[in-house]
Amino acid sequence: QVQLVESGGGLVQPGGSLRLSCAASGVIFTLAAMGWYRQAPGKQREEVAFIKRDGNTNYTDSVKGRFTISRDNAKNTVYLQMNSLKPEDTAVYYCNRHSPLAYWGQGTQVTVSS
After folding, report:
1. How many C-beta neighbours within 10 Å does residue 17 have?
2. What DSSP string describes 16-75?
3. How confident is the model over 41-62, as pLDDT tens digits?
4. What 8-state DSSP symbol labels residue 87?
5. Nearest-angstrom CA–CA distance, 22 and 96
């Protein structure tokens, strides 16, 4: 059974940092490229970063240099370190495979506001 549990979101001021975590099960984690996605109100969900099983990473332009994705295969967990947060980063953040499954977790809310 697939399960994706995101955590670590919250309210942060502009310029602040958050670290998101995603515990994955049932997705053959160690074989999968994993991604972090976000969906802001009124907008489509977008992938902001992904990490291949060999550790290679890729980021969308709007987060390059500010976000870092990483993974711990032993813990079946993927992380997203977010620094220098901006109000436009406000969204619900989700993890999934880079080729996403139909199943999505509940996500974690990130709000960047003063």
Report:
1. 11
2. --EEEEEEEESS-GGGS-EEEEEE-TTS--EEEEEE-TTS-EEE-GGGTTTEEEEEEGGG
3. 999 999 999 999 889 999 999 9
4. G
5. 9
